[in-house]
Amino acid sequence: MVAGWKKLKRFTLENPEVPLFKWGDEEDYTEPSVATNPENALKISSYYGAVKRVADTIASLSFRVVRKIEGGFEFASDHPLDELIGEMPHPLYTSFHFRHALVANLLIYGNSYARIIRSRLGAVKRLEVLHPSWVIDITEGEVEGELLHFYIIQKPNKAREVVPAEDIIHLKGLTLDGINGKSPTELHQNTIGAGLSALEYEKKFFSNNAHISFAIELPMAVSEKAKQNIESAWRRFWRGLKNAFRPFILDSGAKLHKISATPAEAMSAESRQQVNKDISRITGVPTHMLAGGENTTFASVEVMMTDYVMFTIRAIVKQLEQVCNMRLFTRRERAEGYRVQINIDSLLRGDIATRTKKIETEYKWGIITKNEARRQSGYNEVPGGDVYLSPQAYEIQQSEQ
To answer: Which residues are paired to 141 by β-bridges?
Structure first.
């Protein structure tokens, strides 16, 4: 009988203290647990792939300071923040790695933090990524009669610091209070645990020469010493790669019985596929990007890619833009129209034929100029290319060519 994952024993009617067979050490039969701490989730290839895909996508986009002008925005390359956020926010990592770390922490921990290091005059000097485990509390307090919020930071082997909220960039996942995000790896421990358990099962299965578990039936009662000798012989002849396909001969009427399912019988492949689908739902990354879209078509992939950009990437980009706007610029700079901008338009351009047709239509109807069209295609500007055409002017231009 199995009692709460205790050591499994089977007793004879004559002497209930003598087990019919030995199952191994006592510690082997305590309740099994697969560690599901956030970073362990990355051991599942599809979760690692989903996190890396989203982080790579956002980190590779253009990240610039813009200024609002009549009719739109223009790049503000003269603003000191433009180079800092677009190239080197910290001496040890680039803008790509800065955003990559922020997004990865967000998808793993549900919260992502960066500290703003300022000069004595309040100008932004650098941006420092904080590991989510370093932020131990968010609190509030009164300073000169004004209610302010603070982050309590505890770095390893460092003194505890109290940092004003205006010096922290905080990205949040699913939040129920607007202050803290929920960790997806903690909310979905069962899904993550199932994936980790499958990996552990396969590891043990193949480390045992891909043999399933067996029981040896003996025709007569034997001593405890004999049982130990049989078990030792079994391990010696079957364990290890060098013993693969080596026959194990049973004598004295002993019989071999299978007592566990093979991976195929346990439907491990189907379980893996289900885990991939669950991770796709958790992260918002389409299954075909996790190598799990066997039944997808070109049309369905195109729709999923659009959904991925519109509902996964854009949500994170929008949050990052808003937080940076509120934390990096002064009230006066915001009033003057300064903003950060992460351009996701390049992700929505579609294939070459669709993109070319779109640019041609916009140019024909005077929505964009020739130079704007050339910039979208990666070409340099030409003299006189900043004129907006009408459909009639476009037709005349085409006929003259």
So the answer is: 148
